Amino acid sequence: MGKQKNKMSVVQLTMITAINMMGSGIIMLPTKLAEVGTMSILSWVVTGIGSMALAYAFAQCGMFSRKSGGMGGYAEYAHGKSGSFMANYSYGLSLVIANIAIAISAVGYASVLFDIKLSPLTVGICTIFTLWLATVLNFGGASITGKLGSFTVWGVIIPVLVMSTVGWFWFSGSQYAAAWNPHNFSFFDGIGKSISITLWAFLGLESASANMDAVDNPKRNVPIACLGGTIGAALIYIISTNVIAGIVPNADLLNTNAPFGLAFASMFSPVVGKIVMGMMVLSCFGSLLGWQFTIAGVFRTSAVEGYFPKIFGKVTKTGTPIMGMVIITIAQSLLALMTISPTLAKQFDVLVNLAVVTNVIPYLLSMAAVHVIMKSEGVPDKKVKVTTFISVIASIYSLYALYSSGLEPMFYGAIVTFAGWTLYGFVSHRFDLKKNENVKNVSA
């Protein structure tokens, strides 16, 4: 009975799932969506359906897969060790890129908070400083990171919830309607142009099934929490970003690095706007802190698995992979300099699209394995058919997200993916030679 008391309820797990997705994904959204106009609400509908399909399929994978390693373990069912490597490699890469975008969000809000005009090079330098600060603070271990993260996340949750509820008192229907399609996109172009930024907001949904051991009756509650958390996050995203579009003119949203701060300044006063900016900088940095630690963990488990160089697997007495963190942050620093753009929003855009492309690859590998995982575990045929159908919808959405990201992110994403196949050649002997030797011994 004591064990049951320590378990999370389905409501608690649903809230954790939604908060994990929200993190820092939302704070630059209104500016990015203003590039399309309020018709971007249609992208939210498409992404909401696609994300729910992904969340449900991942929940089923988490319950029935017997292999460790998250998406890498799922992919192995259908694609073998090379697929498992590619899932780990592309997921690790997407997190490395995504964290630079999170750091840029923090720099953008901080620059508006302190009324500092930053040149493109200065944005790059400040981003690198922010990344290194997060890395150094992580040297203390997971407990410090966890405590800071659970506190700073409220810096984004409170303003977003206030905007979603109280913000309606300042909402102008005529202003919202005027911003519907200010750039005269065609129907499908308008939806496509904001798909990658809306999917960016949901990245992290794959971790929703990670807490299955901590919840009572996981077979029933994990899928409910995954879907409930995704729906909850979707509603908060859609309401808050669309309320802002009815408060702040589209042209003003388009030219700000701190959209939520601008909205609160319009609603209340510049002082309140500054407070919200400060809260969001804090929240963004807290999220960056947690994700920098997570990346090092992903690289460490991949090194232990034999996929990545052994140096990523080395840990200190506190279990912190410091060497891995340092190498990752050096790579991020170089990437931050390589992607310097005329504006902060443009650099954010480049990184988000590249992060989405590389993150969708392990999604596709995992979705292809859903059918095999369930068949191998003797799941009833009816359940297999329903879940496979949902995973096909998730795969179609993922492919559409790749297409919508644009040619440049697809081009660079393809190059780094193809490089992954080459890199696997250097470690495949650890797995494929053993397998071939076993086959020879059996046939002998």
What is the strand and helix layout of this fold?
Layout: H1 2-6, H2 10-22, H3 29-33, H4 41-64, H5 71-113, H6 120-137, H7 142-152, H8 154-165, H9 173-178, H10 187-193, H11 195-202, H12 218-245, H13 250-254, H14 259-267, H15 270-305, H16 322-338, H17 344-376, H18 381-404, H19 407-427, H20 429-443
Subcellular location: Cell membrane
Protein name: Putrescine transporter
Keywords: Amino-acid transport, Cell membrane, Membrane, Transmembrane, Transmembrane helix, Transport
Overview of this structure, please?
This is Putrescine transporter. By secondary structure, the protein is mainly α. It has a single domain (2-433), classed as Amino acid/polyamine transporter I (Up-down Bundle). The chain contains 20 helices and no strands. The chain has helices spanning 2-6, 10-22, 29-33, 41-64, 71-113, 120-137, 142-152, 154-165, 173-178, 187-193, 195-202, 218-245, 250-254, 259-267, 270-305, 322-338, 344-376, 381-404, 407-427, 429-443. α4 (41-64) packs parallel to α11, α4 runs antiparallel to α12 (218-245) and α15 (270-305) crosses α16 (322-338). The longest helix has 43 residues, at 71-113. The chain is globular and about 70 Å long.
Which structural category do the helix and sheet elements fall into? mainly alpha
The low-confidence parts are none
The radius of gyration computed from the alpha-carbon positions, rounded to a whole number of angstroms, is 22 Å
- The CATH class designation is Mainly Alpha
Q: How many distinct helices?
A: 20
Determine the oligomeric state from the structure. single chain
Order of helices and strands: HHHHHHHHHHHHHHHHHHHH
- The tally of beta strands, per DSSP, is 0
How many structural units, i.e. domains?
1
* Overall helicity: over 70%
Summed over residues and divided by their number, the pLDDT gives a mean of 87
What fraction strand?
Answer: under 5%
The major pleated sheet works out as: none
Can you say what the CATH homologous superfamily is? Amino acid/polyamine transporter I
Distance between the termini: 54 Å
